[in-house]
Amino acid sequence: MEVYKKHESVVALLNRINVDTDQIIAKQFLKRVERTGFGVHLFHDWRYNEDGSEKSDFELNEPAYAGASILVTGDNFGCGSSREHAPWAIKDYGFNTIISTSFADIFFSNCFKNGILPIKVNEEELAALMQEIEGNKGVKFTIDLKQQEISTPGGIKIQFETDAFRKTSLLEGLDDISWTLQHSDKIKAFEEKQKQELPWLWK
Amino acid sequence: MKKTMYEKIWDAHLVHEQEGETPLLYVDRHLMHEVTSPQAFEGLKVNNRPVHNPKSILATMDHCVPTKNRDQPIQDPIAKKQIETMADNCRTHNLNLYDMENKFNGVIHIVVPEHGFVHPGMVVVCGDSHTATHGAFGALAFGIGTSEVEHVLSTQTLQQKKAKTMLIQVNGELKSGITAKDIALAVVGQIGTAGGTGYVIEFAGSAVKSLSMEARMTLCNMAIEGGARAGLIAPDETTFEYLQGKEFAPQTEDWEKAVAYWKTFTSDEGVQYDQTVILKAGEIAPQVTWGTSPDQVTAVDQLVPAPEDFDDPNLKQNCEEALAYMGLKGKVKITDIPIDIVFLGSCTNGRIEDFRAAAALIKGKKVHENVVAIAVPGSYPVKEQAEREGLDKIFLEAGWEWREPGCSMCLAMNGDELSEGQRCASTSNRNFEGRQGKGGRTHLVSPAMAAAASVEGKFVDIRNWN
Ligand code: SF4
């Protein structure tokens, strides 16, 4: 997995709440058997006209947001279906950071597995960040995961919480499976015990 | 220390725990379908890792499969590739797959219980959010992402954080005609789609206790619509009776021991939950969603809300957007909403009891002239059972279509879909924009409500209809 570095980037604003994974990546694009190539389909129904041209009134089509790697959005982002195609599409589109007041559980953990940092802030902080973007479209924020800090040219500094283990994994680009396989002995021992105590599970 | 059933299952599956690391939880059963697995197998291949325990896996094909003309090749080339990839992967790794031709084929969450593959006290995962369904057996069952699917395939464990616990107690008796679907929608309406985020819900109370196994599955299935990862119902005689004799249930020599073990997975008397919600069963009316989120729901005898009914500016705006998408005005009676399509099926309501309930209401009646109604059994065994009981004839004579099993119009990946602006009374679980087809409008209801709507061409209060 890619290493998550401190970076400064244009921020895109999607001021909506309860954005569900059906909107993030519509089902007609789930049939691919690869992990890549989903970015062009991100937010398809909101983003494109019938003829495939971009809708000018969709937030992310705003030219000032071009090249953004940070997405600021409303409450309960990523709710609904567990499809990991949603973070794949987000990553493939170019985002590696999402800032919101809350995220749906499965989506939240899927983000970390794909090198995306979801940051939870409180309502006032989110409102302040949104205000700064709206007043200055194309503004660049800096995200420093090591220091757990968001900073903006407008002078906002937010310290955010993050799980220590997930933080290390992102910073070092660690693969979960290799980490877990270090505990193979414990997994084996668990299984041996289960075979003894609950033999019907192994028939 | 007193423990909830969630905590007991958790403790029984903890493989590794250390300060500063995410705990590792053992996974007993892994369910699969064709949409969320291919990239996980690709990962195994790239890293040259085997499947840790092929016997822990049961796989089916359901999302992309056609519900008519099953004998002909799949038209959509990408769907076809996905189906073929699934078959290849299962063959390579020697997994138990109920493919399209198999007599047990159907929607994963319908198929798995039919074979007794999930037992109380297990940890069960699937790359599918409605895995919550299996909580009906008192198993901790939840949806995972594809990277996690790969993780479970290679290690038989998951890195998991402990959830908070929520008790939802439904006390008293349900009124006649009110079903588990109505409880589920009423619960989501009350707690909201994010109300359960970070929680595992335990459903309890006399109304829950009295539900059949199938109805319990309907209720737990929709725990995810309230944001919760999983729903749980304590195992009891209903559970044991359902499991006994099934293919993957413990056989005679182990049965007593297994039941004694299962009985330990109930919450201790007087244990504390992080949150408690209490509902009175007698007050739950037939529910109908009016918006584009499952918590935008009301009783059938109510009006569609208007934006001014909400104080919170976010909810007001949500209401406005939902009404615009749904092509509805506020203050309209739910029973004045005309519908075009009726969909009976899905992992929420595609079991035999659902078809019996709907058939009982439409027997001898005709589908309204403006309505197309389709019945999609959740699996071949459901379909065959219904046919043995003559239910297919009741549907067909009323003018319904009687289809082959699959997810079908629940998420419209297989070509069964609404067209722009069409309005559907659906027994599925999600009414998101475009879920059942681009521009399609979904109202979630119980099978009985869907059946009555098929005859009237609009929603009716089944409590005083026949
Ligand atoms: S029936 Fe619907 S909710 Fe259930 S597994 Fe299929 S697509 Fe998902």
UniProtKB/TrEMBL annotation, chain A:
Pathway the protein acts in: Amino-acid biosynthesis; L-leucine biosynthesis; L-leucine from 3-methyl-2-oxobutanoate: step 2/4
GO molecular function: 3-isopropylmalate dehydratase activity
UniProt-listed Pfam families: Aconitase_C
Catalytic activity from the UniProt record: (2R,3S)-3-isopropylmalate = (2S)-2-isopropylmalate
Entry-linked Gene3D superfamilies: Aconitase, domain 4
Domain Aconitase A/isopropylmalate dehydratase small subunit swivel: 1-123
Major enzyme class: lyase
GO cellular component terms, semicolon-separated: 3-isopropylmalate dehydratase complex
EC number(s) recorded for this UniProt protein: 4.2.1.33
Alphabetical GO biological process terms: L-leucine biosynthetic process
Alphabetical UniProt keywords: Amino-acid biosynthesis, Branched-chain amino acid biosynthesis, Leucine biosynthesis, Lyase
Subunit structure: Heterodimer of LeuC and LeuD.
UniProt similarity note: Belongs to the LeuD family. LeuD type 1 subfamily.
Task of the protein: Catalyzes the isomerization between 2-isopropylmalate and 3-isopropylmalate, via the formation of 2-isopropylmaleate.
Name under which the protein is recorded: 3-isopropylmalate dehydratase small subunit
Gene source species: SAR324 cluster bacterium
Gene name of this polypeptide: leuD
From TrEMBL, chain B:
Iron listed as a keyword: yes
Native source organism of the sequence: SAR324 cluster bacterium
Signal peptide location: none
Swiss-Prot/TrEMBL GO biological process terms: L-leucine biosynthetic process
Keyword line: 4Fe-4S, Amino-acid biosynthesis, Branched-chain amino acid biosynthesis, Iron, Iron-sulfur, Leucine biosynthesis, Lyase, Metal-binding
UniProt catalytic activity: (2R,3S)-3-isopropylmalate = (2S)-2-isopropylmalate
Record text on subunit structure and interactions: Heterodimer of LeuC and LeuD.
Gene transcribed to yield this protein: leuC
Task of the protein: Catalyzes the isomerization between 2-isopropylmalate and 3-isopropylmalate, via the formation of 2-isopropylmaleate.
Protein name as catalogued: 3-isopropylmalate dehydratase large subunit
Catalytic class of the enzyme: lyase
PANTHER family membership: 3-ISOPROPYLMALATE DEHYDRATASE, HOMOACONITASE, MITOCHONDRIAL-RELATED
Cofactor note: Binds 1 [4Fe-4S] cluster per subunit.
